């Protein structure tokens, strides 16, 4: 058993913050959380006096392990750009679990990620929910698959336009997505299906049955509106990815209770769809009642800087508690794992990080990271 003692615990739930608290960890789970009232003598004690203890942060959209930083083609497995419709691909099959970014993530307090294919395709494949530390690389898969990645906008147009193939326009983007969903919906009504087609359509069927969300890349307001129309037509669980101009269609998002995984924000306006990129968007979404979580889109923003994005949004008007929620409780809830992750509570998984100062202070460092009760040890040291 492990006892973390003496720190200020930001529980991120109704318990609020606990000064001079004690967290007992047994195996993979939190056994108890409370004020300092003693602990068993046989515990491994971690002294967190003068420090902040929080739940591990969750990056709900990135390409960690799929798009490696120090490689070119040999480490780039993020886009299978040979066919615009590839729902049967699984990101888990392209992950390099020794990617240097996993250690970087833990240095920034990020203990889990939803890693997914890129946005070259209309339907790119299935995301995988990863933990950033485990006893062996094979144990780093937390949930698989966990959502189906799709995309609208400029990226599919550019990739397939260069190949002189459909899609060349936003109209074709939407048409291909509709066609794939329509064909899969018809497959649902057949008594028998060929094994190959069942395999290729399986992820789409899960989306149509609301067994997994559609994670749809859309920056511009017009693409978000197209996504919402398709969501209405097929009655999907939709989460907008990026949402640079989501504040322009906030009423439509709120009406449908559609959330946004917001980011990357710590970037320049690298393409026309990024014209409105701003840290003020988070505050605007919060004021409009839109549910959101911050994302890095790693390696676009290095995954360890997830907390920096949240902090800069506070500078631009977002409530500090809401900013912390947007990297802890909100992604956990939106990804359907709030019973296990996102806050420091008895019975939840022991994903914990200790900072030597407030996590939004740029001078603060992670002094300990724990994933499923295992204390991170850097394999490179």
Question: How would you sum up this structure, described in words?
Answer:
By secondary structure, this protein is of the alpha/beta class. The chain has 2 domains: 1-55 and 342-381, Urease, subunit C, domain 1 (Roll), CATH 2.30.40.10; 57-341, TIM Barrel (Alpha-Beta Barrel). Helices cover 27% and strands 24% of the residues. It is built from 10 helices and 18 strands. The strands form 3 sheets. Strands 1, 2, 3, 4, 5, 16, 17 and 18 form an 8-stranded mixed β-sheet that branches. Strands 8-11-12-13-14-15 form a 6-stranded mixed β-sheet. Helix 6 links the parallel strand 13 and strand 14. The radius of gyration is 21 Å and the shape is globular. The mean pLDDT is 93.
Which characteristics define this entry?
381 residues, alpha/beta, Urease, subunit C, domain 1, TIM Barrel, six-stranded mixed beta sheet, 10 helices, 24% strand, Metal_Hydrolase, Metal-dep_hydrolase_composite, Amidohydro-rel, Amidohydrolase-related domain-containing protein
Task: Offer a quick outline of the entry.
The protein is an alpha/beta fold and 381 residues long. 27% of the residues lie in helices and 24% in strands.
Topology:
Blueprint: E1 2-10, E2 17-26, E3 29-35, E4 44-47, E5 52-55, E6 57-62, H1 101-107, E7 110-115, E8 123-126, E9 128-131, E10 141-143, E11 148-151, H2 154-162, H3 170-189, H4 195-208, E12 214-218, H5 221-234, E13 238-242, H6 250-256, E14 259-262, H7 280-287, E15 292-294, H8 306-315, H9 320-325, H10 329-334, E16 352-355, E17 366-371, E18 374-375
Parallel strand pairs: 1-4, 1-5, 6-7, 11-12, 12-13, 13-14, 14-15
Antiparallel strand pairs: 1-2, 2-3, 5-16, 7-9, 8-11, 9-10, 16-17, 17-18
Helix pairs in contact: 3-4, 3-5
């Amino acid at each position: 058993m492990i006892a973390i003692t003496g720190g200020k615990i930001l529980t991120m739930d109704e318990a609020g913050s606990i000064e001079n608290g004690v967290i007992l960890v047994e195996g993979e789970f939190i056994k108890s959380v409370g004020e300092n009232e003693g602990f068993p003598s046989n515990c491994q004690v971690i002294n967190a006096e003068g420090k902040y203890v929080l739940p591990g942060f969750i990056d709900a959209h990135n390409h960690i392990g799929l798009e490696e930083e120090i490689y070119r083609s040999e480490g780039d497995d993020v886009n299978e750009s040979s066919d615009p419709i590839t729902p049967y691909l699984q990101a888990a099959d392209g992950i390099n679990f020794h990617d240097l970014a996993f250690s970087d993530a833990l240095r920034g307090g990020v203990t889990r990620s939803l890693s997914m294919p890129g946005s070259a395709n209309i339907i790119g494949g299935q995301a995988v929910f990863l933990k950033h530390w485990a006893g062996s690389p094979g144990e780093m898969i937390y949930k698989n698959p966990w959502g189906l990645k799709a995309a609208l906008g400029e990226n599919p147009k550019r990739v397939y336009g260069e190949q002189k193939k459909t899609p060349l326009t936003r109209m074709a983007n939407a048409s291909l997505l509709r066609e794939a969903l329509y064909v899969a919906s018809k497959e649902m009504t057949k008594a028998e299906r060929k094994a190959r087609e069942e395999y290729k359509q399986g992820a789409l069927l899960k989306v149509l049955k609301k067994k997994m969300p559609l994670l749809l890349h859309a920056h511009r307001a017009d693409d978000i509106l197209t996504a919402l129309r398709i969501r209405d037509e097929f009655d999907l669980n939709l989460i907008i990815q990026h949402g640079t101009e989501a504040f322009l269609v906030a009423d439509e998002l709120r009406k449908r209770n559609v959330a946004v995984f917001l980011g990357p924000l710590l970037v320049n306006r690298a393409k026309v769809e990024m014209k409105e990129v701003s840290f003020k968007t988070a505050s605007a979404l919060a004021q409009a009642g839109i549910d959101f979580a911050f994302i890095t889109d790693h390696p676009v923003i290095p995954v360890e800087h997830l907390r920096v994005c949240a902090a800069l949004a506070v500078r631009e008007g977002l409530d500090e508690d809401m900013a912390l929620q947007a990297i802890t409780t909100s992604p956990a809830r939106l990804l359907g794992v709030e019973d296990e992750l996102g806050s420091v509570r008895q019975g939840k998984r022991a994903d914990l990080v200790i900072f030597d100062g407030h996590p939004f202070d740029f001078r603060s460092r992670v002094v300990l990271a724990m994933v499923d009760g295992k204390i991170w040890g850097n394999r490179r040291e």
